[in-house]
Design brief:
The chain is built from six helices and two strands, in the order H-H-H-E-E-H-H-H. It is mainly α and 156 residues long. Strands 1-2 form a two-stranded antiparallel ribbon. Helix 2 packs across helix 3.
Length: 156
């Protein structure tokens, strides 16, 4: 999938093969089988072009990652604890990206409650520092970050 996303347009087996062969030796039939499997799973769509197909990603890499994260989060017997543990694994940069993403999204199209709003910026024009989620009831739910791997950690 990584190669299909990188091309960001419909690609042929030959194009993917030539791209992969820059890094390692791989057979045409292997690439063809993988792209066919991705088509069977619904991850790519294909259109006939002469005797070949052009393959195109069905969703973006970000949407794929968000779906994986949502699936994993939903499978937890304690989703709030899973989120807190996940946030604990994040770097400062990832936490900032999460805070920025939360600001862009309003849950259920409702205004943010007063206790959920960030503190007003200080008079110096500097952004007020937000606290990291400390308890399960403080953790924002269902936010996504960038993908790149399929279930089981295998990158495509």
């Amino acid at each position: 999938m990584t190669r299909v996303w990188e091309w960001n347009r419909p690609v042929t087996v030959r194009e993917v093969l030539e791209d992969l062969q820059k890094e390692r030796s791989i057979a045409y039939t292997t690439v063809m089988t993988v792209l066919d499997n991705l088509h069977q799973k619904g991850w790519v769509r294909r259109e006939a072009e002469g005797r070949a197909y052009r393959y195109e990603a069905v969703s973006t890499r970000a949407a794929y990652s968000a779906a994986l994260m949502n699936e994993a989060w939903s499978a937890s017997d304690n989703p709030a604890a899973a989120l807190v543990a996940f946030f604990g694994m994040m770097s400062q940069e990832q936490r900032q990206a999460l805070r920025d993403a939360v600001r862009m999204v309003q849950v259920d199209d409702r205004p943010v409650a007063a206790e959920e709003q960030p503190a007003a910026p200080e008079h110096s024009g500097e952004r007020a520092r937000e606290e990291e989620p400390q308890a399960a009831d403080e953790a924002p739910a269902g936010e996504g970050v960038e993908p790149g791997a399929e279930p089981g950690g295998k990158e495509r």
